[in-house]
From TrEMBL:
Top-level taxon in the UniProt lineage: Bacteria
Organism of this sequence: Paractinoplanes globisporus
Pathway, per record: Amino-acid degradation; L-phenylalanine degradation; acetoacetate and fumarate from L-phenylalanine: step 6/6
Fumarylacetoacetase-like C-terminal domain boundaries: 92-350
PANTHER family with a match to the protein in the record: FUMARYLACETOACETASE
UniProt keyword Coiled coil present: no
Protein's recorded name: fumarylacetoacetase
Keyword Transmembrane: no
EC number: 3.7.1.2
Annotated ranges, domain Fumarylacetoacetase N-terminal: 7-84
Entry cofactors: Ca(2+); Mg(2+)
């Protein structure tokens, strides 16, 4: 059964040899060319469509569905190159999984485990580096950096973070949680590659810097928000301040992390404490603006169980409890040549299961 039927139709940008980039939607294991539909659908990135706002998103989607339903030509995915679907403006990364925050504190800060005091009062985040957001399939060169006093070299504790990315279509500032769907165009999958040794040495007191800025991978497919079904958001205690209310929808996405050919984890996005609407409200609450193409990631998605965590730091307890892959090899952190694939599914707005596409990357020495 295809999770990429007519109820899904995520947007992407593709090209064929010696031809310009075109917008497309994924249908099964093929892509449907949208350039024939003209207007906002005949561009080399999604940015013009994203900037046009919800009324045009709905209208364009109706035309796309009609085109596909009428039996549009399909080009096999094996015959196209997929590109970054939009020009990434700014990139922000949150820290909104309570279980992830607890796990990381216990592993990295055993002297002060537990959530930071402010964690339940605001969605913690940091501003990342948009120029190193790369499309799925781009090889990831192992970063080098300071690993401790007097030591510079290749990271030995290279890790992943399985996250959900939200793509801003219409910019703005002081965006209330109730206006989320007026601004956010869609959802994608993100892998926030992280060098834990560089991070542990550099991060106090300003947070992640070179440990994460070398590469962030995203899926080539953006699932329009309207294809997703919102569900009730989790209870929050203490009650958030007014600008973070109402919380807005949660999304019941189930992620999957494969290390080479072994599925090692299934992170549950529904368990996130802060919603995407609250993250956007917080990000713009001081008067800062977001613009078309801004990407913000949810933070690492980790559930309660060991087979639900979104990072290998958690999965292998900082490398102390290695996992065995199906080929018999064992892993603490990423080795050269390892390939990571993050995928996701959910029951969409039409009541059928839809896929989020996937984000892959292979480690180069
Ligand atoms: O707790 C820490 O010191 C560090 C946490 C992270 O590295 C996670 C980060 O990038 C935010 C997230 O993905 O949740
Ligand atoms: Ca992250
Ligand atoms: Mg990163």
């Amino acid at each position: 059964m295809s999770r990429f039927g007519i109820e899904n139709l995520p947007y992407g940008v593709f090209s064929q040899p010696n031809e310009r980039r075109r917008l497309g939607v994924r249908l099964g294991s093929s892509v449907v060319d949208l350039s024939l539909l003209g207007g906002l659908l005949d561009h080399q990135t999604l940015n013009p469509l994203m900037a046009a706002g919800p009324a045009m998103w709905t209208e364009s989607r109706e035309r796309v569905v009609e085109h596909v339903a009428a039996g549009a030509d399909r080009i096999p995915l094996s015959e196209v190159t997929l590109h970054l679907p939009f020009e990434v403006a700014d990139y922000t990364d949150f820290y909104s999984s309570e279980q992830h925050a607890l796990n990381v504190s216990a592993i990295l800060r055993p002297d002060s485990p537990g959530l930071p005091e402010h964690w339940r009062h605001l969605p913690i985040g940091y501003h990342g580096r948009s120029s190193t957001v790369v499309v799925s399939g781009t090889p990831i060169r192992r970063p080098s950096g300071q690993l401790g006093p007097g030591v510079f070299g290749p990271s030995r504790r290279l890790d992943i973070e399985a996250e959900v990315g939200f793509v801003v279509g219409v910019g703005g500032r002081r965006i209330g949680t109730g206006d989320f769907a007026e601004h956010v165009f869609g959802v994608t999958l993100v892998n926030d590659w992280s060098a834990r040794d560089i991070q542990a040495w550099e991060y106090r007191p300003l947070g992640p810097f070179l440990a994460k800025s070398f590469a962030t991978s995203m899926s080539p497919w953006v699932v329009p928000l309207s294809a997703l079904a919102g569900v009730d958001s989790p209870p929050q205690d203490p009650e958030p301040l007014d600008y973070l209310r109402p919380a807005g929808p949660a999304y019941d996405l189930r992620l999957s992390v494969e290390w080479n050919d072994t599925r090692v984890s299934s992170p549950p996005f529904r368990s996130m404490y802060w919603t995407a609407a609250q993250q956007l409200a917080h990000l713009t609450s001081n008067g800062a603006s977001v613009r078309t193409g801004d990407l913000y990631a949810s933070g690492t998605v980790s559930g309660d169980r060991r087979d639900e965590v979104g990072s290998f730091l958690e999965l292998t307890r900082n490398g102390q409890e290695p996992v065995k892959l199906t080929d018999g090899s064992v892993r603490g952190f990423l080795e050269d040549g390892d390939k990571i694939t993050i995928s996701g599914t959910t029951i969409g707005a039409a009541g059928v299961e839809i896929g989020l596409g996937e984000v892959t990357g292979t480690i180069l020495p």
